[in-house]
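Supplementary Methods, section 5.1.

A reviewer requested that the exact input to the structure prediction be made available. We therefore reproduce it here, unchanged from the version used in the analyses.
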Amino acid sequence: MSMKKPAARESIATPRDLSRALKTAPPGAWVALSQDKARIVGTGLSPQAATYQAHLRGESSPVLIQMPLEDDEIAAGVR
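The structure derived from this sequence is encoded token-by-token as follows.
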């Protein structure tokens, strides 16, 4: 009888879905990537929220990126 260990590094997206997942992230959202930049391990409206999710998934030092704003938001000066 084998016992499965809980996945400490559960990800939101698989590596092949990373590109698609980034394309669907809301404009201005923060995305936390695994250190190897192969998985999305957190997202949020702030870098702290994305980092918190990453830490819950076992990623101690995520790489943070912010999705670009849409063109109309940039023109209006929304941030």
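Helices lie at 18-24, 47-56, 71-76. These observations are discussed further in the main text.
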